[in-house]
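Moderator note: this is an archived Q&A kept for reference. The question asked for a predicted structure of one protein chain; the sequence and the answer are reproduced below.
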Amino acid sequence: LPIFYLKDASFEAPVGPRIEGDWNPQIGLDLQTETSEIEPGLREVVLQVTVTAKQGEKTMFVAEVKQAGAFVMQNLSEDDMKRAIGSLAPGVLFPYARAAISMLVSHGGFPQLLLPPVNFDALFANATANPGTAPN
């Protein structure tokens, strides 16, 4: 049975929630995946989600979450292991990270932010077809 947990979270609002004019920020989203072996057949996968909101040239906030999970991964081929780490596990972890980001942003005094779903299968396929261009 997998275990999911928030490994790290941070929120920065350099100017606080002072919004001038209409709230229409440019949202930047960065996704990174890391993995490590806890013991044979058990891997920790960490999905790092960083959201940056800018209003014009001003950075309004940066929210970062590292959502982790311990996943049993046994008897997988090398390709299946890469897919499990690069697509399946992040897909399971993302809803938890998405909720944590939303909570951080709203507790920071900003309007609610709900990130759209991410197609990790497509990101993984792109990374496999074009090495060095997608989350690592």
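Archived answer notes: The beta strands are 3-12, 26-39, 42-55, 58-72.
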